[in-house]
Amino acid sequence: MVVCLPMFSMTRAATAAAFAPAFAGGGVREVYLDLPGHGDSPANCRATSQAVLDTVCAWLDRNVDKPVLLAGASYGAYLAAGIARQRPELVSGLLLVCAGVKILREDRDLPEFEPPEAPTGWLDDAPAELRPHLDAALGHRTSAVVATVLRALESGGPGDEKFQGELQGGADYALPDEDADIVFSGPVSVITGRQDGIAGYADQFRSMRHYPRGTFTVVDAAGHYLPFEQPALLRSLTQDWLGRTRS
Prior knowledge:
Layout: E1 2-5, H1 12-23, E2 30-32, H2 49-63, E3 68-73, H3 75-86, E4 91-97, H4 131-137, H5 143-154, H6 161-169, E5 188-193, H7 202-206, E6 214-219, H8 226-229, H9 231-245
Parallel strand pairs: 1-2, 1-3, 3-4, 4-5, 5-6
Helix pairs in contact: 1-5, 1-9, 2-3
């Protein structure tokens, strides 16, 4: 079984849209979770990343009887890596896509080059308030990719914006062991976008010292929404990871 955790503010429906095509035919059962205060899940914990992680671990304790595969994107990958550090007995492998490594933006090592050229008007259909984010986030810069990302952002339950704001803006947004030098020995795949202006790719490469069975891939023409920008490559890399989890 693989348990999939979402990007910040996104839902299990969006996570399924991102990952289900990559897992198709892989012979693994997929479970998609809404984090507390996200989608249809109530904000039933304190607004800290540690409390969110503990809530996911409590769900795993109740619902699984052996270690599971964990997959996540962005904040979901940040939490998945945290679970592997804190509760390694729950985790048999990690798929970390566009992972958060440093939760505070000012601590991240982000690419400094100009993003690729894009067709005129590629962001015209995006709400004005989202255009700066998408301009920084996307490496495959087309109106079709923008439409796919917008559908994902709008899918699933409404979430609790107050809780999400308190979580993201709070003093305990970072996990307390974010910088811990702990090794996870299971099979890991770390997949990043070369033009990811949100999480970058350099911090993720440095994190590979924690994963002796890890594969690192940086994908050109991909940014922070890599599953929607390069779905065929994500599928290939995911299938490779699934194969390694069985060896």
